[in-house]
Amino acid sequence: MNIEKLRKQLEIDEGVKYEIYNDHLGYATFGVGHLVLETDPEYGRPVGTTVSESRVVEVFKLDCESVLIDCITFIPRFLRFTRRSSTDNCEHDVQYG
């Protein structure tokens, strides 16, 4: 999976914000929909606080890793597939559980 391509496409589809804002439920958020967690240095900072592009990219990668771990954990045989990607021109053959 090309995380950079995914991030760029989601930025087009969903948008990206380089500041803390409240999402539609009122939760502090930034970047490509990253929920500010208590463990984030941004936690407790006011709406409108600027967040760097490098930080947005960093948390996007961490969020993707977290989702992938959840999928592997909770969806049986999630990574058991063989797929050819015409866009990447490479073959993936990952065999887990």
Annotate the secondary structure layout.
Blueprint: H1 3-14, E1 17-22, E2 28-31, E3 34-35, H2 53-74, E4 81-85, E5 90-94
Antiparallel strand pairs: 1-2, 2-3, 4-5
Summarize the model shown.
This protein is of the alpha+beta class and 97 residues long. The protein has helices at 3-14, 53-74, and strands at 17-22, 28-31, 34-35, 81-85, 90-94.
- As for the number of domains, it is 1
Query: What would you say the CATH architecture is?
Result: Orthogonal Bundle
Q: What topology, given as strand order, has the largest sheet?
A: 1-2-3
What does the main sheet amount to?
Answer: 3 strands, antiparallel
The portion of residues assigned to helices is 25-40%
Envelope shape:
globular
The number of distinct β-strands equals: 5
Q: Provide the low-confidence segments as ranges.
A: 82-97
Q: What is the helix tally?
A: 2
Structural class: alpha+beta
Mean pLDDT: 84
Distance from N terminus to C terminus (CA atoms, Å) equals 19 Å
What is the CATH fold-level name? Lysozyme
User: Which strand-content bin applies to the residues?
Assistant: 15-25%
CATH class, named: Mainly Alpha
The value of Rg in angstroms is: 16 Å
- What's the helix-strand series? HEEEHEE
Name the features.
97 residues, three-stranded antiparallel β-sheet, 23% strand, Lysozyme
Written account of the structure:
By secondary structure, the chain is α+β, with helices and mostly antiparallel strands. The chain has a single domain (3-94), classed as Lysozyme. The chain is built from two helices and five strands; from the N terminus they run H-E-E-E-H-E-E. The chain has helices at 3-14, 53-74; strands at residues 17-22, 28-31, 34-35, 81-85, 90-94. It has a three-stranded antiparallel β-sheet with strand order 1-2-3. A hairpin with a 2-residue loop joins strand 2 (28-31) and strand 3. The longest helix has 22 residues, at 53-74. The model is unreliable at 82-97 (pLDDT under 50).
